[in-house]
Amino acid sequence: MSAPNATPERAAADSRRDAILPALLALLAGALVVVWRPPLPLDEIRYLEILRESLRGGIWLLELGGEPYADKPPLLFWLARAAGLLGLPPEIALRLSPALASAGVVAIAGALGRRLGLRLAGWTQAVLFLGFVYSQYVLFDPLLALGVWAAVLAWARGKDGAAAAAAALAGLAKGPVAFLHLAAFLWAFAPARPRREGAWRRGAAILGAGLLPLAGWALLAARAGGEEFAHELLWDRWAGRIGGSFAHRRPFLFYVPILLVGSLPFLPLLVAGRLPERRPAPLRRLPGALLALLVAFSAMGGKKPHYLLPLAPALALLAAERIERTERGPRLARAGIAALIVLGLLGLAAEPLYESWLHERYGELAAGLLAGAAWRILHSAAILLSASALVALLGGRPSLSRSLGAGLLALAATFAPLHYAAGRLSFPFTLRRHLEGIPAAAPLVLLGERRAGFWEWLARRSPLPRLSSPAEARPWAEEHPGGYLILDERIPSAELAPFLRCLAADRLRGNPVGLFVAEG
Asked: What's 506's DSSP letter?
């Protein structure tokens, strides 16, 4: 917030900084993940393999392992493919997508906040734990959140055509679930009377127009994939999932603790005191929209924490309101940020507590990681930066925007060594290096789990032939002397020694894997 005696020029400069800086820092924090670690098995690499296979075929039908892929719509892959036409490697573009989408959501939250008289909404979105965490991983939800909230911003500005286009992007990002979010948040930002009656018709038209591109793609993909794929896409993955959504595979209250943790560092603001009696209508309606979405998602059987990501900007707007418009808000916000930094420092300092677990699960790989110079530098730098942010927060009483910036810096610093460790411990670098040296014409087969496209991506072959049982390994080796076999199954090397020679032993997420060559 600006000081009471700030000049108009200073206030304007602060406003521009609060509009741009949080989005840029969010983009940087997410983009650095690509530097800290390789793509994570298995979800991130599954999407990279879908992209790799889609680059060889048409744009309508996604494939995984040479088979039509029905789980997700195509927008994420289309955007990565378009980035390739502009000179950016498509796989890098795919991995940068959550950072770019999350930075866009921060900018949109800031723009909506300014419409409501709130300066700090961009900062609160950037620091909000729920939004920050899922800007670090390749998922479809950051792009979904961007489409949903771009539609809300356009709707709030009275630009119905732009709102419909953004709604279409949201649908193509994640599927029909986008329209559940859109309906709730368009209602929250609907204009007050006397224009409200017409707003319902306009909102319905926006949702209908936004649904058309998704429906068009689904029909084209269903036609290209065949009858069985069409049934899976149009029924099993969409209508069937909705129809069977009340199976409660997880508890009804599954999302409550996730929402509480995701609201950090702003959870203390729940007791910030009374808000002004005259509040903008969207801020009065947002709690109702959040509650309706929480109940709807809690009633569904399939539950995952990142499904709540599109709720983050609503939480950020409500947090910014309490910070800026309650007497205790600034103090409670600083306390929450300080507590979050302290939690991060405690986690970084607790290395001896989880060192034994890492050694037990990853063996020498963990020992080499923790003794390595890169880990020591990143770990020490994270502690130093987080401690500096805490000292600045507690000692100098900085402005609220600088306090929020300190929280964002500490979060990014805390996650950097964690990403580095996750990459080093989960990704089979040795195996990849050997697979890259195999001639394209050489026979290559998999024995073990297919792991949803992971081995196809690592070997750059699709479909990758797979042996159905260990008993088939010897006949295959005799038929393909000099061929290569990827082993992703718990078979002692001694059992394979008479006919297969181990070229490389590695670990995938703690499990032993290897590459063998047939002796003939």
From this structure: E
361-385: b (≥16 Cβ within 10 Å) or e: ebeebbeebbeeeebeebbeebbeb
- Rounded CA-CA distance 186/13 in Å is 31
Nearest to 181 by CA among 302, 296, 293: 293
Q: Is 489 left (phi over 0), alpha (psi -120 to 50) or beta?
A: beta
409: its two tokens: 């810096």
Residue 7: predicted pLDDT = 67
Contact criterion met (CB below 8 Å) for 63 and 225: no
Contact predicate 454/41, CB 8 Å:
yes
Distance in angstroms (rounded) separating the CA atoms of residues 293 and 180: 8
- Residues 6 or more apart from 82 whose CB is under 8 A from it? none
Higher per-residue pLDDT: 79 or 59? 79
Confidence of residue 150 (pLDDT cuts 50, 70, 90): very high
Q: How many CA atoms lie within 13 A of 457 on its CB side?
A: 25
Distance (Å, whole) CA 403 – CA 391: 11
Find the Cα–Cα–Cα–Cα dihedral 448, 451, 453, 459, rounded to 10°: -50
Q: Which of 104, 97, 101 is nearest to 81 (CA)?
A: 97
Is the model's pTM score more than 0.90?
A: yes
Q: What is the pLDDT of residue 261?
A: 96
- Rounded CA-CA distance 145/148 in Å is 5
Are 17 and 136 in contact, with CB atoms under 8 Å apart? no
Helix (H, G, I), strand (E, B) or coil at 378: helix
Edge-to-edge strand ranges of the sheet holding 484-488: 466-467, 444-448, 484-488, 511-518, 500-508
